[in-house]
Amino acid sequence: MWFILALSSAIFAALTSILAKIGIDGVNSNLATAIRTLVVVVMAWGMVFLTNTQVGIADISRKSWLFLILSGLATGASWLCYYKALQVGAASKVVPIDKLSVVITLILAFVFLHEQFTFKSIIGCILIGAGTLLMVL
Question: Is the dihedral of CA 20, 21, 22, 23 positive or negative?
Fold first, then answer.
């Protein structure tokens, strides 16, 4: 199931880039990000209430609150930078560079989460990095 969800995430992320590039034409990138964020907020809270999981709010630990808030701030910063880059650059160049987040995530997971960095991971990072360079040059 995780694979289908992850693949769906990739498809929706690809659609996000194309739809955003079309929609951002003539719109301030910060305003476009705010509109996108509002839609995501409504959709996410809709799912919370649809699945009746709002009752779990009181059970969230302080540590989880802190890291969820920091994650939200990182997401916001990422989206603001992404939309500005998408507005001034070609989607075919911006998106591959944005996907370097895969390599950065693997490195951060190794350093901070102590996840295993395998030979496959190293080769994958090198290939993603090389592929990104090839696409943007």
Answer: positive
Condensed to tens digits (0 to 9), the pLDDT of residues 83-101 reads 999 999 999 999 999 999 9
CB 19 within 8 A of CB 95: no
Measured between alpha carbons, how far is 81 from 88 in angstroms, rounded to an integer?
11
Query: Is 113 exposed, middle or buried (CB count within 10 Å of its CB: 0-12, 13-18, 19+)?
Result: exposed
- For the chain, give every domain's residue range: 2-87, 99-137
pLDDT in tens, 24-73: 999 999 999 999 999 999 999 999 999 999 999 999 999 999 999 999 99
Question: What is residue 59's DSSP assignment?
Answer: G
The tokens describing 9, both together, are 């995430």
At residue 122, the 3 state secondary structure works out as: helix
Cβ atoms of residues 80 and 33 within 8 Å: yes
For the entire predicted model, the pTM comes to: 0.83
